[in-house]
Amino acid sequence: MNKINDFSRKSPGRLYIVGTPIGNLEDVSFRTIHILKKVGLIAAEDTRHTRKLLSHYDIHTPLTSFFEHNEEKKTPYLIDKIKKGNDVALVSKAGMPCISDPGYYLVKKAVENNIEVVPIPGPCALILAVAISGFSTRSFVFEGFLGRTKNQRIKKLKELLKEKRTIVIYEAPHRIEKVLSEIRKVLGDRQIVVARELTKKFEEIIRGRVSEVEKIFSQKKPQGEFTLVIEGTK
Ligand code: SAM
């Protein structure tokens, strides 16, 4: 019996949804390495990026690309492989697949095909950020990216105006300043935590009112990856 996973098998092969580091290559569990070594194929959002992780841990499993724009086309191929008895692991460029990353469609189709889907835990920026925020973690709402256009972002923010739960959003560095100003205008000058470059060399946690964070970024251009945690309304 497999000591790592001793569930009875539903399908000949399994689909593993594997969390990988969001910056620090050491954030990998023994189980993650074991699974990535034993599967027949790794479907990766960014094969070049994943190759670095694999070579760091001396893993030689074949890779195939699986990203937003080929997800639907590639899914039947992966489902077929699993049905024929191959184990497949899905990894994204960073963090948990399916969380603001490709994977949802593949998991849905795997479930429809009675394939066993096994989660292999790993870092996830939103969970790390909410945990260190100091805001209530009893319940929180994750909005992903608010949107590329101002209209999309304002609409989402307006929907969040009365939200009592802690709010977590992802944002690209080139939009941070715009988004902070929109948050202040729509939600008010609330307490916010800006988690930058989590797990990386230049990790930084900025806490304060939205206007205070805006001031910091007006003096120092925002760089790197950001997760924002906003206090819910009282
Ligand atoms: N699947 C990933 C996860 O589990 O966190 C998220 C992927 S999403 C495409 C990328 C966004 O996640 C970034 O734009 C940023 O908002 C957030 N993010 C990823 N890595 C981060 C880090 N090291 N520090 C802070 N935020 C990060």
Runs with pLDDT <50, length 5+? Answer: none
Radius of gyration, CA atoms, in whole angstroms: 20 Å
How many strand segments? 10
State the shape: elongated
Report helical residue fraction.
Answer: 25-40%
- Strands across the major sheet, in which order? 3-2-4-1-5
Content-based structural category? alpha/beta
Structure report:
There is one protein chain. The chain is α/β, with parallel strands linked by helices. Helix content is 35%, strand content 21%. The chain folds into 2 domains: 3-120, Cobalt-precorrin-4 Transmethylase, domain 1, CATH 3.40.1010; 125-230, Methyltransferase, Cobalt-precorrin-4 Transmethylase, Domain 2. It has a 5-stranded parallel β-sheet, sandwiched between helices. Helix 3 (71-83) runs parallel beside helix 4 (104-112), helix 6 (150-159) packs parallel to helix 7 and helix 7 (176-187) runs antiparallel to helix 8. The longest helix has 13 residues, at 71-83. The relative contact order is 0.15. The mean pLDDT is 95. Bound molecules: S-adenosylmethionine. S-adenosylmethionine binds next to helix 5, strand 7 and strand 10.
